[in-house]
Structure of Post-GPI attachment to proteins factor 3:
Amino acid sequence: MSWYNWIVLSFSLLCLVRALDASAGDADPIYKACVEQCEKTGCVGTKCFQHCKFSSDGKPIDGPWYLQEPLYMQWKQWDCRSDCRYHCMVAREEERQKLGDKPVKYHGKWAFRRAYGIQEPVSVALSALNLAIQFHGWVSFFILIYYKLPLRPNKKTYYEYTGLWHIYGILSMNSWFWSAVFHSRDVELTEKLDYSSAVALLGFTLILAILRAFNVRDEAARVMVAAPLIAFITTHIMYLNFYNLDYGLNMKVCGAMGVAQLLIWAVWAGVTRHPSQWKLWVVVVGGGLAMLLELYDFPPYRGFVDAHALWHASTIPLTYLWWSFVRDDAEFRTSSLLKKTK
Ligand SMILES: [Zn+2]
């Protein structure tokens, strides 16, 4: 039982770490002065940015009329700020390294190196790979259930959780898509989309865990379980998007939902006589260990690979095994239902 405590502990620590460690680097007066200077002059050292060319009244100096629209101006100022922050951060981290100081975070993130304008290339690539594995898992489930296993006379599957796994597949692919977008360009909109899809996925997998582990097959009972959870998840997403993007609160909510479903699967894996029980165990233990990676938040190796990227890497084999469990479950349920009808 001790690893349960570990997960709970790591989640509560995770909240603390996130809440305290908002920004050590961006409070640094040298960094602040650099960004301020850059937003005025458009240059960091010898590097200058085209988007930072504003006249004194905030209008761009050159360019045709359509480039002077307010919306475009906002984009330009946005780009200017993000380029200034990035190059000041790189310059400051190089200085710090020469002085023998440890790396620090800027605006809640480590100093990542960009590649082709992508902020965290490794996390983007791993998110894309996760998306591909999810797609592969979902398609193989689809083929198994509709083409390999027998169907009911009304053309529906014997397996009672088909629809739920389809929703799971779609929500997780959506979530990995926005994760890839967010890691390539971190602005408020992409951040909100990434967080919202992750919360939606986590909330739905909790519902799925309850329905599958407790064998809830009756439509009315399913609605009774799902409705309050859907209401809660929707409220939480609305709160994050339209009221306050509170990282601490979101961590607690996600942590609670994550631990709850791991516990449900773990207990179920302990009592069930499911033939693919071991796959459940591996995913539950692996999932718990993977969460520890999020806790052990080390700075990116060579500016590229950090704990978060490794966490995205660890979900790839777990996802593969997870879909394999889902396929086994579909086969197992179908064959036991067929035995009953005979
Ligand atoms: Zn991520």
